[in-house]
Every structure is written in C-alpha cells, then in structure tokens.
Amino acid sequence: MKPIEDRIKKQLDVLFVGFNPSIKSSETGTHFANPTNRFWKILFEAGITPRKFDTSEDRSLLNLGYGLTNIVPRPTKAADEITKEEYKLGREQLKEKILTYKPKIVCFVGKGVYQEYSGKKSLPWGEQEESVVPGTIDFVAPSSSGLVRMRIGEVIEIYRQLPELVATIKSKA
C-alpha cells in the first residue's frame, strides 16, 4: 500500500489532519475515501463546503482554502496499527509542514490525532488554548469515521465552528 499525496499549499485557511490513510484511500489515491467515512458529508453539512464533494474531488478543496494531510502517511486498516516510531516521525513532519505552509487553522480530525501530535491527554473540542506551532490555531474535531459513537448532529456542530473561526481571523487581518 502506498501513501497518498498531501493536498496542501501555502496560507490555507484550514489544514485538516487525519490519523493516516485507509486502505481504500491508498487504492484510490484520495483522502477520506472509505465509504463509511463521513468527512465529506460533515464538511458540507457544517457549511465548510458549498456542496457535498466526492472523495475524487479532494484536490478541489485547495481552491476553497482547505488542505488535507495525515500525521502518519502509511495506510492501514485501523489507526491502532500505527507504531510509536511512526507517530514520533509523523509529529516532526507535521510540525515542519505547518511551519512551511503556515495554515491559519490546523483541524485535527479526531482527538486521538491531536493527542498523538501534542502529547496532551485531556483537551476540549474546538479551538485549543495554546497551539503547538505558534502563529496557527489548533482546532480539535471529532473523527469522521463511521465508528465514532457521537451523533452526527453533534459532530457537525463542532465542525460548524470552523467557518466562523476563519471569518473572525479574516476580519482581524
């Protein structure tokens, strides 16, 4: 299985960070490709995208000011297959991407992703008090996996804070 390319460019409004690609994502070469993953539905229903995009359109997010990456590039069936060494290397690589591309907000798609990145154990949903990389805002959202036990409406409400946060940042610029 091969990793998939980041969808990233400088000065994004939001860089979405997942755990790692699924097997389906590796096969298609696109992010959040597993049919049980609700990422694309969540983005649309939270008002982040103007319509529900298909995974094959993941590059189109760049035109809207959004990017996609993962903390670990290796595809697996489940996140529990990721090793400590992979997380350690992934943390450093992600910090470097954030420093290089300077997104306004880094949205971690899952508390576990942010816990692996930040080393913090207890954290709230949404904007974090302090970012790991100064000059960006760390934002923690629920995983979009179909395995998440939260109701989809609750998940969407958390993601709905992102467009509001982007608007606030742009109004201050």
From TrEMBL:
One of its GO terms (molecular function) is hydrolase activity, acting on glycosyl bonds. This is Mismatch-specific DNA-glycosylase. Keywords: DNA damage, DNA repair, Glycosidase, Hydrolase. The keyword DNA damage applies. It comes from Cytobacillus spartinae. It comes from the Bacteria. Residues 8-151 form the Uracil-DNA glycosylase-like domain. Its EC number is 3.2.2.-.
